[in-house]
Amino acid sequence: MAEGKTQIAVLSGKGGTGKTMLSVNLAAAIENSLYVDCDVEEPNGHLFLKPSTENEKNVFVQHPKVCEQSCNGCRLCVKFCNFNALAYIQEKLMVFEDICHSCGGCALVCPQKAISEEDRTIGKISEGKSQNVKVLTGVLNPGEQSGVPIISELVKMCRKEAGTTIIDCPPGSSCVVMDSIKDADYCILVAEPTIFGASNLEMVYELVKLFNKPFGVVLNKCLKDKNPAEEFCKEKGITVVGKIPFDHRLGKLNGDGQIAVRESKLYKRMFSDLYVRVAKEVKHETVINP
């Protein structure tokens, strides 16, 4: 962990567990924090934080551009492409942009130099401010196959920031989640109190173990009933850093797109205390794994 910088990633095995609710409230409970929305397919942190837009930039990938006059139909590029993004049909080389992975291999293997590369916009990153929180939001254009380039750019931008960063990860355990947590100093896994919630918790638990990331669990929507997600934590010896009760008022604030810590001293204290516990865990991990 770089001096003066802490990155905390918030994950869940599926959408709707309270990952964004926890992320935006933690960010708002901390002085001068950075909130980064890496859920680029469906970013919704901005709906709560309502940041001013101070800057926007497009994110590009490169894709093949064919010079028909130079192509002699040898099909070496077609044979090379493992993603079947190229086809030679009726004496014409065709590129299917939607399945191209922008590896650039087709241009490298073309003996006629008939393939070059050009930029294609796949989304954007917005920078803004919401009171004490700087906000970075990645947005993937509809129909694009992968948000990894946008998340990689967000991760680069985070490296320039001091203080505490809260990363709101995409749900699940796919490539985009892996990219989102690769610089994280600590991961918070959010789980619901159901058998399905325990199953989804196990999925992200396996991911952070694979990446050897320090982590703890926040149990959301807790009732007095048996909690399978908590049972899973006990079975695996996982630290539970916080329990958020099933609370109609908190649910209504969240449903209305409000930041709970800005609406109530009770919730300000609840999320601030949770951050203090997480910060202690981060400090502990820094000592034992410097």
TrEMBL record:
Pfam families linked: CbiA, Fer4
Swiss-Prot/TrEMBL keywords: ATP-binding, Iron, Iron-sulfur, Metal-binding, Nucleotide-binding
Name of the protein in its database record: ATP-binding protein
Domain 4Fe-4S ferredoxin-type: 62-88, 91-120
Molecular-function annotations in GO: ATP binding; iron-sulfur cluster binding; metal ion binding
Domain of life: Bacteria
PROSITE patterns with a match to the protein in the record: 4FE4S_FER_1, 4FE4S_FER_2
InterPro entries linked: 4Fe4S_Fe-S-bd (IPR017896), 4Fe4S_Fe_S_CS (IPR017900), CobQ/CobB/MinD/ParA_Nub-bd_dom (IPR002586), P-loop_NTPase (IPR027417), RLI1 (IPR013283)
